[in-house]
UniProtKB/TrEMBL annotation:
Coiled coil: none annotated. It comes from the Bacteria. Keywords: Membrane, Transmembrane, Transmembrane helix. The chain crosses the membrane at residues 70-92, 104-122, 142-161, 173-191, 211-231. The keyword Transferase does not apply. This is Putative cobalt transporter CbtA.
Length: 247
């Protein structure tokens, strides 16, 4: 059964990754182009601001290749995440959450989005080109990883707390939400803030890029959760083959 779930997670993760790639291409790429144009204008020598500048000059990967590679990147991301999700789902079946296959798959995808994507994004949102100091990228990456670990740990604490509360469902939900928020809010308050937006960078462009980045992840997890839940629910409804009578 684990092998079947793993194959299912890999394939549906790939499909969801390509769907998210289409969203990122349509909504995110125009914001990336605008940010690159601002970066080039800021880097252009004085008196050459109006000169046509090719962003591909000196770049390791050209922009057309980067755009095509977007679908490869989101597809590989979907494969990896889908495989990991399927293994975690196999461990959760019958232990926590909704008892129906489809409901558990959709609920697990929603929780994963909140823990792994939304929690770190609220503290360290994505930045477009021309925003961020290259010399601090290692420190910023470590801080982001810390927030991902905090989100996962808070989820585990919330699930364990809900299982310990023997009262009604409302009390279990309240205890789980509180157990989740305490470490998350503490991390938000204690970890350092990173603000490297250069002066004069358009706030509207920054906001639209971040929404597009978060929207890409939301599209991926919504598509993957719906597809994975549907596939699991459909498999559970297929009647088992009758055993062959012994001759």
């Amino acid at each position: 059964m684990v092998r079947t779930l793993l194959v299912r997670g890999l394939l549906l993760g790939l499909v969801a990754g390509l769907i998210a790639g289409a969203f990122a291409f349509a909504v995110g790429e125009p914001r990336v182009e605008s940010a690159i144009a601002l970066e080039e204008a800021a880097a252009a020598p004085a008196g050459h601001a109006d000169h046509d500048h090719d962003h591909d000059h000196g770049a390791v990967v050209s922009r057309p290749v980067q755009k095509a590679g977007l679908f490869l990147a989101t597809g590989l991301y979907g494969l990896a995440v889908g495989g990991i999700f399927a293994l975690v789902y196999a461990g959760l079946r019958g232990r926590v959450g909704p008892r129906s296959e489809g409901g558990l798959g959709l609920a697990a995808a929603g929780v994963a989005f909140v823990a792994v994507i939304l929690v770190p994004f609220m503290k360290y949102p994505a930045n477009p080109p021309a925003v961020g100091d290259p010399e601090t990228i290692t420190g910023r990456t470590l801080l982001y990883v810390v927030m991902v670990l905090v989100g996962l740990a808070a989820t585990a604490i919330a699930v364990a707390t809900a299982r310990q509360v023997g009262a009604g469902p409302w009390a279990r939900w309240a205890a789980a939400v509180a157990a989740f928020l305490v470490p998350v809010v503490a991390a938000w308050l204690l970890l350092p803030t990173v603000d490297e937006v250069p002066e004069g960078f358009p706030a509207t462009l920054l906001w639209e890029f971040r929404l597009a980045s978060l929207g890409t992840q939301l599209v991926f997890w919504a598509a993957f959760g719906a597809l994975f839940g549907w596939a699991c629910d459909r498999a559970a409804r297929v009647p088992k083959a009758a055993p062959v009578a012994a001759a």
